[in-house]
Amino acid sequence: MQSSSLENDSVNHAHGMPQYEELVTGVNCPTCNGTGKVPRDSEREYVALIPLSDKRLKPRRTVLWIGVTVSICLLLLIGTFCSLFFLLPRSIVLTSTKPLLQPYAVYFSHRDRVMTMDIQNYVNLTNDNYFSITVTKIEMSIVYGDTSLCETANDTLTTSVGPRSLHLLSSRLVCRVDTGSTESLVRFCSLPTDENLVYLRFNFAVTSSYMLDHKEEATISAVQIVNCSNTVVPTSLVPATTIQPTTTAFTTTTTTDSTTSSAIGSSSVTSTVSSTTYPFD
């Protein structure tokens, strides 16, 4: 047996075949197709050479996973941008065309030296948001010079304004002006002419709600021409609440109208008027 082994070794040596010694403590060589071993202690010192055509260098579905990840990130980015663009609250704007106002009726009381004017004004509300809003309150006050004549408020509104739309709002009130506060205005309006044009400042404040009861107030102040002549054909006189002026005091009287009275809006005061015109001294 020993002679045959020696013969085989001599034959292999004669044919130029390499000899190697099996190391019991080694590990399989990853580049030798399992036909060789390397020392276990030297495992970290060797570098494996892998052909470029090896499938291990081309993991399956790598491109697919990268594409899915990039697509999800893009969708999240686009969704966030769209949410901010469409849900971000925008301003609510009030505008006025400042038309010539013709009161429903203008009355003069010679005994009480009071002018009562039933007037209605309009204002445009522009909703620039991409969602609907609800108008919950509208306030209007009338100012002559530096004196507040009267004001009214309606806080029972539930008017809905659509997205990116324009809506016309109106407010009507009966304004009682006495000679003690603005005598010049009352004297001018009592002149027996067809048109007694006077400049009055109208202040509007509109409160709206949207998105989980978030409230926002928009205001506007417009100076408009009002025909306060008593030649205006009387119509139904709407009762309204008149507030004491801020600069000069005047009284608010609750009596019964001998001619007509109607309930419109949120007003609650019935004004005493006379159908006869009394020019003031």
Q: Approximately what portion of the residues adopt beta-strand conformation?
A: 25-35%
Q: Which class do the helix and strand fractions yield?
A: alpha+beta
Query: Please, how many helices?
Result: 3
Q: Extract low-pLDDT stretches.
A: 1-6, 233-281
Summarize the biggest pleated sheet.
5 strands, antiparallel
**Basic shape:** rod-shaped
Mean pLDDT: 75
**Cα distance, first to last residue?**
154 Å
* The top level CATH class name of the largest domain: Mainly Beta
CATH-derived architecture of the largest domain? Sandwich
Helix content: 10-25%
SSE succession: HEEHEEEEEEEHEE
Q: How many domain units?
A: 3
CATH H-level superfamily of the largest domain? Immunoglobulins
Number of strands: 11
CATH topology of the largest domain: Immunoglobulin-like
Q: Using only CA atoms, what is the Rg?
A: 46 Å
Would you write up a description of this structure?
- With 281 residues, the chain is an alpha+beta fold.
- The chain has 3 domains: 54 residues, no CATH class; 30 residues; 136 residues, Sandwich (Immunoglobulin-like).
- It has 3 helices and 11 strands; from the N terminus they run H-E-E-H-E-E-E-E-E-E-E-H-E-E.
- The strands form 3 sheets. Strands 6, 7, 8, 10 and 11 form a 5-stranded antiparallel beta sheet that branches. Strands 3, 4, 5 and 9 form a 4-stranded antiparallel beta sheet that branches.
- A hairpin with a 3-residue loop joins strand 10 and strand 11.
- It is rod-shaped and about 125 Å long.
